[in-house]
């Protein structure tokens, strides 16, 4: 007896990657409301957004960003449940895949400084095509008088510091573009034991 082949219902088919090399960040890793560290409309909420660009200045359509941050008082949350957004507990962590134009957007609160004399920042991790490993950087709040005294920023050449400082848009949001290489390349950080 010959096996009977059935035709699957097209509405039940899940799109799969067209090639077998990856990684495919936008396929399975993003999750519902992962970009919302706080619900939109929360008092003090701010939008952190920007574009991921390659060495030629072209938007990267398949990148993913994660942020980790302190709360407005400078305390880094240590709570479970980062993948489950309940709208009441601030976990300080979020994940966002870029759209086809390389754009990302988080809804969060502005972090406070974690140490005396340091400037407040978002820790940013970038995953993208062509990268053998993730990249680490920071997005500092603009207009902070503490920027000059920040240990990391003061250790950089003056013309490179600006790649780590977000800009304030007219609507109050924070814009932070990530340039993977080339002119205006974002400063990326290395951490001991990261490669292990």
Automatic annotation (TrEMBL):
Q: What transmembrane ranges does the database entry give?
A: none
Q: Check the record and name the CDD domains matching this protein.
A: 3_4-PCD_alpha (cd03463)
Recall the GO molecular function terms of this protein's record: ferric iron binding; protocatechuate 3,4-dioxygenase activity
Specify the domain of life of the species encoding this protein: Bacteria
User: Which residue intervals define the domain Intradiol ring-cleavage dioxygenases in the entry?
Assistant: 34-113
> Which SUPFAM superfamilies does the annotation name?
Aromatic compound dioxygenase
- Supply the alphabetized keyword list: Dioxygenase, Oxidoreductase
Q: Please report which protein family the annotation says this sequence is part of.
A: Belongs to the intradiol ring-cleavage dioxygenase family.
Name the UniProt record assigns to this protein = Protocatechuate 3,4-dioxygenase, alpha subunit
Q: Which organism is it from?
A: Pedococcus cremeus
């Amino acid at each position: 007896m010959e096996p009977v082949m059935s035709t699957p219902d097209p509405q039940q088919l899940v799109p799969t990657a067209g090639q077998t090399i990856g990684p495919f960040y936008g396929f399975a890793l993003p999750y519902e409301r992962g970009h919302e560290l706080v619900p939109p409309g929360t008092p003090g909420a701010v939008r952190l957004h920007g574009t991921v660009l390659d060495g030629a200045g072209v938007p990267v359509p398949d990148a993913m960003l994660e942020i980790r941050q302190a709360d407005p008082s400078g305390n880094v949350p240590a709570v479970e449940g980062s993948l489950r957004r309940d709208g009441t507990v601030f976990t300080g962590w979020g994940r966002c895949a870029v759209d086809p134009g390389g754009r990302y957007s988080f809804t969060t609160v502005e972090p406070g400084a974690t140490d005396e004399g340091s400037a407040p920042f978002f820790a940013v991790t970038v995953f993208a095509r062509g990268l053998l490993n993730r990249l680490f950087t920071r997005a500092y709040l603009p207009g902070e008088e503490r920027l000059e005294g920040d240990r990391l920023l003061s250790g950089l050449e003056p013309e490179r510091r600006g790649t780590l400082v977000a800009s304030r848009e007219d609507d109050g949001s924070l814009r932070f573009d990530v340039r993977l290489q080339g002119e205006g390349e974002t400063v990326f950080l290395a951490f001991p034991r990261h490669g292990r």
